[in-house]
């Protein structure tokens, strides 16, 4: 059983870390997630069960349990401060677009101090540990910002499977999805949507 769970986890991690650059209509590169890895194809061929995935963004904030990268302490819905927008950013630490968005968010922190910002990844916590210090140092230690490890692949099961990184999901104070998108957007658009 442990082998099966490990195989599924490795396949899922590969699923999200296997990105390639494509050009969009404006000529800028976008980070794209491959939807079918070799390991997933092998799992399908051997009839192993696969994790259920959310094909559409969750309309209501689902119950979840992630883990704070710095401390390993569990983080759930109950830990999300109320009465403000909550943003989940699914990222890959090696994604250039994720790094750029994080840097731009950091430079605009004063506009975002009343928004909960959660950076989430299924990557090895060791790869995530210095992400903010490296790409968004102005966000380090802020009370409304946290880097979370998705140990059990809950994001893709309960929130959504994005096509591109970074993937942004904005939930209002009532837990209702206000907006979501995959891939890189202009920082003015991002800030306007996060604070709307």
What order do the helices and strands come in, and which of them pair?
Elements: H1 2-17, E1 19-23, E2 29-33, H2 38-45, E3 65-68, E4 74-76, E5 86-90, H3 96-107, H4 109-112, E6 116-121, H5 125-128, H6 131-135, E7 145-149, H7 154-159, E8 164-165, E9 167-171, E10 177-182, H8 187-195
Parallel strand pairs: 5-6, 6-7
Antiparallel strand pairs: 1-2, 2-8, 3-4, 3-7, 5-9, 9-10
Structure description:
- The N terminus is likely disordered.
- By secondary structure, the chain is an alpha+beta fold.
- It is globular, with a radius of gyration of 16 Å.
- The protein has a single domain, classed as Glutaredoxin (3-Layer(aba) Sandwich), CATH 3.40.30.
- 33% of the residues lie in helices and 23% in strands.
- Helix 1 runs antiparallel to helix 2.
- The strands form two sheets. Strands 4-3-7-6-5-9-10 form a seven-stranded mixed sheet, with no helix packed on it. Strands 1-2-8 form a three-stranded antiparallel sheet.
- The chain has eight helices and ten strands.
Question: How many helices in DSSP terms?
Answer: 8
Structural class: alpha+beta
- At the third CATH level, what is the topology name? Glutaredoxin
Structural shape: globular
Strands of the biggest beta sheet: in what spatial order? 4-3-7-6-5-9-10
What percent of the residues sit in helical stretches (DSSP H or I)? 25-40%
Indicate the radius of gyration in whole angstroms. 16 Å
Assembly state here? single chain
The ordered string of helix (H) and strand (E) elements is HEEHEEEHHEHHEHEEEH
* Percent of residues in β-strands: 15-25%
CATH superfamily: Glutaredoxin
Main sheet makeup: 7 strands, mixed
First-last Cα distance: 46 Å
CATH class: Alpha Beta
Known CATH architecture: 3-Layer(aba) Sandwich
- Residue runs with pLDDT of under 50 for 5 or more positions: 1-47
Query: Can you tell me the number of structural domains?
Result: 1
Average pLDDT confidence is: 82
What is the number of E strands?
A: 10
């Amino acid at each position: 059983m442990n082998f099966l769970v490990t195989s599924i986890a490795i396949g899922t991690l590969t699923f999200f870390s296997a990105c390639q650059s494509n050009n969009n209509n404006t000529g800028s590169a976008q980070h794209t997630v491959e939807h079918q890895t070799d390991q997933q194809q092998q799992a399908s061929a051997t009839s192993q069960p696969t994790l259920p995935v959310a094909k559409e963004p969750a309309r209501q904030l689902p119950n979840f349990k992630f883990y704070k990268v710095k401390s390993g302490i569990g983080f759930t819905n109950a830990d999300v401060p109320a009465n403000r927008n909550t943003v989940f950013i699914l990222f890959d630490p090696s994604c250039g677009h994720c790094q750029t968005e994080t840097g731009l968010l950091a430079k605009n922190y004063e506009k975002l101090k009343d928004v909960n910002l959660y950076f989430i990844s299924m990557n090895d916590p060791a790869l995530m540990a210095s992400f903010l210090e490296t790409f968004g140092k102005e966000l380090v230690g802020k009370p409304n910002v946290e880097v979370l490890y998705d140990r059990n692949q809950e994001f893709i099961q309960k929130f959504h499977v994005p096509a591109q990184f970074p993937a942004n999901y904005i939930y209002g104070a009532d837990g209702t999805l206000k907006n979501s998108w995959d891939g890189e957007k202009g920082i003015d658009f991002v800030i306007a949507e996060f604070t709307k």
